[in-house]
Amino acid sequence: VETVDENYDVSIIQVGKQPLEGDFVARLLAHSEVITCASPSYLDRNGRPKHPRELIEHDTMLPSHAREITFQHGAIQGDDEPPGESLTLTPGRPALSSVHGDTIYAAALAGMGISGLPSYVVETALRDGKLERVLPEWRVLTVRVYAGMPTRKYVPARTRAFIDFLVKSFGGREHDPWLQAAGCETPCGAVKPAQ
């Protein structure tokens, strides 16, 4: 969800570029990159793009709200290095457009085209070779994943233990444990989390 639901002891919150705001307590679990990926069979048939501009020649699968996609390569604003390249594309008519991420994921596995999906969704498929990362040097979006709870007052021990378990399991820092586990992290200098 995008904010804490007061009806639950713990909410898992996914935050993109917007700041984390609200009357709640949140602990960072990890970051998750939205990466471009496709099945090896699709890429064998249609080629492996080397630059985001080449995506225009491919079948793409996008969330229905995506009007444009910005790819970032190299240093991100705020790094000590000179700024990298940034490219914003307005996709043509996608092969599939859906608000349902699982539908796009299933279509990518079936070889329908190139999609952009969060690393926590595609980790197993990347590790098993069912999906392949496309344009690994280019960043699309990094989301922050938090465990949040409505208040700090009278927090049951089981809730604290659960949140501590999540932080320990996912690292509790600015890194992507799913891409690390899949063995295809974004090269150093090519990604910095959204602020």
List the helices and strands and how they pair.
Blueprint: E1 11-15, E2 25-38, H1 40-46, E3 60-63, E4 69-73, E5 85-89, E6 96-98, H2 101-109, E7 114-118, H3 119-127, E8 132-134, E9 138-139, E10 141-149, H4 157-170, H5 177-182
Parallel strand pairs: 3-6, 3-7
Antiparallel strand pairs: 1-10, 2-7, 2-8, 2-10, 4-5, 4-9
Structure write-up:
This protein has about 200 residues and is α+β, with helices and mostly antiparallel strands. Helix content is about 25%, strand content about 30%. The protein has five helices and ten strands, in the order E-E-H-E-E-E-E-H-E-H-E-E-E-H-H. Strands 1, 2, 3, 6, 7, 8 and 10 form a seven-stranded mixed β-sheet that branches. A three-stranded antiparallel β-sheet has the order 5-4-9, with no helix packed on it. The longest helix is centred in the C-terminal third of the chain and has 14 residues. It is elongated and about 55 Å long. The two termini are about 20 Å apart. The relative contact order is 0.28. The C terminus is likely disordered.
Strand percentage: 25-35%
Q: Specify the number of helices.
A: 5
The separation of the N and C termini measures 18 Å
Give the oligomeric state of the chains in this entry, treating copies of one chain as homo and distinct chains as hetero. single chain
Order of helices and strands: EEHEEEEHEHEEEHH
Structural class: alpha+beta
Mean pLDDT: 86
Provide the helix percentage: 10-25%
Largest sheet: 7 strands, mixed
Shape: elongated
Which segments are poorly predicted (pLDDT under 50) over 5 or more consecutive residues?
A: 188-195
Strand segment count: 10
Question: From the alpha-carbon coordinates, what is the Rg to the nearest angstrom?
Answer: 18 Å
